[in-house]
Amino acid sequence: MVGTDTRTIVVAGGSLAGHTVVTELDRRGFTGEVVWVRGDESVSPYSKPALSKEFMQGKLTAGDISLPAPPADGSRLRVIDGTLCARLDADADRVLVGDEWISFDALFICTGMRARVPAHFTGLPGVHSLRTLADAAAIRAQLDSRPRAVVVGAGLIGSETAASLRSLGLPVELVVQGRLPMEAVVGEELGRFCLERHHSHGVTTRLSATVTELSAGRAGGPITVAFDDGATTEAGLVVLGLGATTACGWLEGSGLDLSDGVLCDASLRARPSVFAAGDIANWPNPVFGGRMRVEHWSNASAQARHAVESWSADQEGRRRPAFADVPYFWSDQYGLKYQMVGHARGHDEVRVESAGGDGARPLVTYYRDGRLVAAAGVNATRAVMRMKSRIHCPDREPGPGDGPLPSGRPTRTAVTSPHVPGREKTT
Ligand SMILES: Cc1cc2nc3c(=O)[nH]c(=O)nc-3n(C[C@H](O)[C@H](O)[C@H](O)COP(=O)(O)OP(=O)(O)OC[C@H]3O[C@@H](n4cnc5c(N)ncnc54)[C@H](O)[C@@H]3O)c2cc1C
C-alpha cells in the first residue's frame, strides 16, 4: 500500500544498471521511497553501446538511445541529477549526496566506470575519450570538417570507433598497443580477422605502438601524435580508447573491499544492506568458480535485476540466489557482428572451428581442462549461442579476477568441420 512503507532505497548511478534497479523495484511493487542519484551527467539515462556505432555514424540521435523514463507511480521516486554520491558511511547506512546525508535501508551501487585518460593527454582541443554521450557528441561535432583521425587503443571501443569514422569516409589511423586489435577481448584468431577488416576498409594501423605525447603547435592547428619509437603523425581528431577505471572513489574509506571494483558475494551483496551491479560489481561466478567483473551491457541489466532479487530474498527471509551467468557481448564493425560468450581467462586450448574467409563465418572456442569456457564468432549468432548453452564449469578452483586474455600460448587447433567442436581436428 502506498504511503505505509517507510523504507528508503538509494540507487547510485544513472546508467543501465541504476535504471534497471529502479525499474525492477517498481515492477516488484516496492512502495517505499527510492532515491536515485544519477551522477554528474546532466542528461536523461541512455544506452551506451550506440555511442561508438550508430550515434557516431549519425544514424541515431540522443533521443533514439535514451532509456525509457522511470515509472512515475508506485514507489515514491526522488531523482537527484547533476550530483555525485560523495561518500558512503556503511556503518550508519547513509550516503553523502552534495551536502545531504541520506539514510537508507538498502543501497544499490551502480556507478560503473570512467574513461581512463592519462593526465598528460587532457586539455587539448580535438582530443577526446569516449565513455559518455557528451564525449560522443563532442567527437561528432568535429566530423563535418572531415579531420584526419587517429584512434589510440584498439580494444572494443577503439576498434569500433575506427570502423565508424572510416565508414564516414574519414582517413583513420588506428594505434594498437599490442600485436592485434581486439586481441585482449576476443583472442588472437579474431584479432587477426579484425586487423584484416580494418585494412580492407582502408584504415592504417600502427602495431605494437605506444603514444607518448600529444601536442598542438597553435590553436586550431593539427595535433602532433608522438610514439615511443620516435615517430610522429598529425591528426585533426584524436580519440582515446584506453580503457576505463571503476568509479569507486566515493567508496574509499567505507570499509568495502575495492580491490577490483566492489567485491560482493555470489548474490551481489557487499554488506548486509549494500548491493552492487553492472561494470563495477566483482563477484564469484559459480559457473566458472572464480571472481570476475564484466564490462558488458547485458551483464549490467541482468545483475541489476538479480541484485534486486537478492535484496527481496533477504526481506522475505528467503535464501539469496547466486548470480550464475555466462557473460555475453557483441561488437559491430563494418556491418559485421562480433559476439563472445563465456570467460576465456585461464584457457589452455583454443579450437578454430572456422577460420573465416571465402564467406565462412569465423568461430573460435576456448577450453580449460577439456571444458568449454568461451566461444567467439563473427556473424555466427546461432553457433555462438549454441556454445553458450554448453558452458558449465561448476568445479573450477577460484581464479584471479577478470582481465584480458593471457598472452601465453595455449594449444591451438584448427577444426575442419565448422561449428562442430571436437570432430576432425588437425593441429
Ligand atoms: C562507447 C561504448 C560502447 C559500448 N559498446 C558495447 C557493446 O557493443 N556491447 C556491450 O556488451 N557493451 C558495450 N559497452 C559497455 C556497456 O555500455 C556497459 O557495460 C554499461 O554501460 C554498464 O552500465 P553501468 O550502469 O554498470 O555503468 P555505466 O554505464 O558506467 O554508468 C555509471 C553511471 O554512474 C554515474 N556515476 C559515476 N559515479 C557516480 C557517483 N559517485 N554518484 C552517482 N552516480 C555516479 C555515471 O555518471 C553513470 O551515469 C559499451 C560502452 C561504451 C562506453
UniProtKB/TrEMBL annotation:
Ranges where the record places region Disordered: 389-427
Pfam families: Pyr_redox_2 (PF07992), Reductase_C (PF14759)
Keyword Flavoprotein recorded: yes
Residues of the FAD/NAD(P)-binding domain: 8-304
Signal peptide: none
Residue ranges of domain Reductase C-terminal in the record: 328-390
SUPFAM superfamilies registered for this protein in UniProt: FAD/NAD(P)-binding domain, FAD/NAD-linked reductases, dimerisation (C-terminal) domain
Lineage: superkingdom: Bacteria
TM annotation in the entry: none
Cofactor(s) recorded in Swiss-Prot or TrEMBL: FAD
InterPro entries named among the record's database cross-references: FAD-oxidoreductase/Apoptosis, FAD/NAD-bd_sf, FAD/NAD-binding_dom, FAD/NAD-linked_Rdtase_dimer_sf, Reductase_C
UniProt cross-references to PANTHER family, sorted A to Z: APOPTOSIS-INDUCING FACTOR 1, RIESKE DOMAIN-CONTAINING PROTEIN-RELATED
The protein, known as: NAD(P)/FAD-dependent oxidoreductase
